[in-house]
């Protein structure tokens, strides 16, 4: 005697698994992720070469600016970001290499990001510490901080510079593309400022201790 036919039933998947699978499919779409470049415009001006050869240390960025997501400020003062909008390269590396190239282009100096690749050591060491790099709620991009030029890369003597910068670029639109364009323009302006050793700050001459007389020894007794 034949048993009545029964439809084959698969075990039901938990709702959480179905939701997770759906979200994974949505997040895996590469077309929803935008990656934005830092690409300073050509300055269109040339300034005298006051740096010669200089090694640019890795630029120090605030944590939010060093993150892969493009940050922006909202009206409540909060700094926010979106995982769909990313920088195309590591922000600190991109800022450093782009700034070195921009300084070289505008002045004719040989500015190279560390590590220094040439056999002849650089005559100067350049360090940039960024305190703010942000598309602000007032529709301006602000790049501020300090830079330092040590003129004693070879001999341990010379002139040093400790100067500050506070660059504001108006933004005609909002969004990651506008942020990338404004950041690129701000880096171009900073390159001109560093190339001319300008900005508020101080010029400090390196002083060397007087050479000691080998015969000028303290008494033994």
Give a nutshell description of this structure:
With 221 residues, the protein is of the alpha/beta class. It has four helices and nine strands.
Task: Please tell me how large the radius of gyration is.
Answer: 27 Å
Number of helices: 4
Tell me the quaternary state: single chain
Could you list the spans in which at least 5 consecutive residues all have pLDDT below 50? 15-28
What order do the SSEs take from the amino end to the carboxyl end, as H and E? HEEHEEHEEEEHE
Structural class: alpha/beta
Strand content: 25-35%
Helix content: 10-25%
Provide the residue-averaged pLDDT.
84
The largest β sheet comes out as: 6 strands, mixed
Global geometry: globular
| Largest sheet, spatial ordering of strands | 5-2-6-7-8-9
Descriptive key words:
three-stranded mixed β-sheet, alpha/beta, globular, 221 residues, 4 helices, six-stranded mixed β-sheet
Description:
The protein has four helices and nine strands. The protein has 221 residues and is an alpha/beta fold. It has a six-stranded mixed β-sheet with strand order 5-2-6-7-8-9. Helix 3 (91-107) packs across helix 4 (176-195). The longest helix is centred in the C-terminal third of the chain and has 20 residues, at 176-195. The radius of gyration is 27 Å and the shape is globular.
């Amino acid at each position: 005697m034949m048993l009545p036919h029964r439809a084959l039933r698969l075990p039901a998947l938990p709702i959480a698994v179905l939701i997770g699978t759906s979200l994974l499919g949505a997040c895996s779409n590469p077309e929803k992720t935008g990656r934005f470049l830092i690409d300073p415009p050509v300055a269109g001006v040339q300034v005298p070469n006051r740096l010669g050869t200089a090694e640019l240390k890795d630029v120090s960025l605030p944590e939010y600016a060093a993150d892969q997501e493009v940050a922006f400020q909202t009206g409540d003062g909060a700094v926010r970001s979106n995982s769909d909008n990313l920088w195309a390269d590591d922000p600190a590396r991109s800022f450093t290499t782009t700034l070195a190239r921009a300084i070289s282009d505008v002045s004719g100096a040989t500015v190279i990001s560390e590590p220094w690749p040439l056999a002849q050591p650089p005559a100067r060491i350049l360090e940039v510490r960024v305190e703010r790099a942000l598309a602000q709620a007032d529709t301006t991009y602000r790049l501020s901080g300090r830079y330092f030029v040590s003129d004693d890369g070879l001999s341990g003597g010379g002139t040093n510079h400790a100067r500050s910068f506070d660059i504001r670029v108006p933004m005609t639109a909002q969004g990651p593309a506008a942020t990338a364009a404004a950041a690129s323009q701000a880096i171009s302006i900073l390159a001109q400022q560093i190339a001319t050793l300008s900005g508020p700050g101080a010029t400090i001459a390196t002083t060397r201790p007087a050479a000691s007389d080998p015969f000028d020894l303290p008494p033994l007794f």
